């Protein structure tokens, strides 16, 4: 099986009549991104990706039946391997690894079915966004949508800071039976709230989460989306847009620091370093001055304001370090016990780090019964889907980075930077649902760039690369 070439599915029509051309409307993708705050408020949130996958799949199939080719992304064989591993690993749901709480496989099935449905929905989003033409949805407009979501992320950060206890019952939540809507997992999907209240540096304090559900997801999406805001503002050619983007970037420092999210801080460093290296290699040395000025401004903002104390307090309080190390050890142990297909899903530990008799309670929700595979996409892949799933997942995105490495456009650099920062994020963040959605949209932008470049542009780019 060749993984390097993009796959194409073609349906030929009768010899005497040309095939009917059916365009793809942009509204399924556009409505997800532009109206996401509304979906969050309604209680749909991440569920909108599954909901919109239905019309997207229908429209793709309709266009294929009409005779227009259906393209699959380059390296899709890797992603297909991952999806197959997710399905096959379901057969191991009934296994109770050493040190985990016993449970019947059927009890674990709902969460696993939800994740599988979301993975399939994200796959449909990837294929749909990649098959949209420049006339149907310009890449610049898709970048603006993603940049808009960075603005939404910053706004959600300030909401979490100033009204950390803000929450409300969504319309979808109201429609659910009390026995279902009261479950923690269901609450995380349909109950909007501004922040997670956590004791990290002494005393319970709000950490921004809106509209992404979790503080870690908020930080992950912050890194994935920030580059698209910059590209959207600078490509607009309007000084007002650039000024507003700069104001938004400067303002974003506050919730980014107050979130106490070390993974976010590392991700921003990875993002800046990658972009700087790409531009330096392209001969654009002015990026060094931009990074130096931005770094100086950031340092001043942290040192000359109370934000510096927040950073110091977070670095001095690594309460989660022990739990993370414990869960990584458990994930690796589980991987070595079932290295090919994993266990199909996560498991809860028996007890905590110190003793198997320590468990979660109303007075100490974080004392035990930790979720193995819940502290990073990499550890979840290894534990839940084994080597097959991990290789397929990583192989797809790594192949994309290699395949599109010559794309030096602003959109290409921003999209590849988003994928690069996601690799550092997978050490401590889980990707499903919205981070993975933004990752595949970044991949789709790179893919469409490669399809829409003219032969002359390809030759010119390749020539530049050799000089």
The tally of beta strands, per DSSP, is 6
Q: What is the gyration radius calculated from CA atoms?
A: 23 Å
Shape: globular
Helix content: 55-70%
Please tally the helical runs, counting DSSP H or I stretches of 4 or more residues: 19
Mean pLDDT level: 86
Percent of sequence in beta strands: under 5%
Low-confidence stretches are 1-16, 354-366, 454-467
By secondary-structure content and strand pairing, the structural class works out as mainly alpha
Quickly count the domains.
1
Order of helices and strands: EHHHEHHHHHHEEHHHHHHEEHHHH
Task: Kindly report how far apart the N and C termini lie.
Answer: 34 Å
Reading side by side through the largest sheet, how are the strands ordered? 1-2
Keywords: Membrane, Transmembrane, Transmembrane helix
Walkthrough of the structure:
With 467 residues, the chain is mainly alpha-helical. It has one domain (23-452). The chain is 63% helix and 4% strand. The chain has 19 helices and six strands. The strands form three sheets. It has a two-stranded antiparallel ribbon with strand order 1-2. The chain has a two-stranded antiparallel ribbon with strand order 3-4. Strands 5-6 form a two-stranded antiparallel ribbon. A hairpin with a 4-residue loop joins strand 3 and strand 4. Helix 10 runs parallel beside helix 12 (262-281) and helix 15 (319-337) crosses helix 16 (377-403). The radius of gyration is 23 Å and the shape is globular. It starts with 7 loop residues before the first strand and ends with a helix.
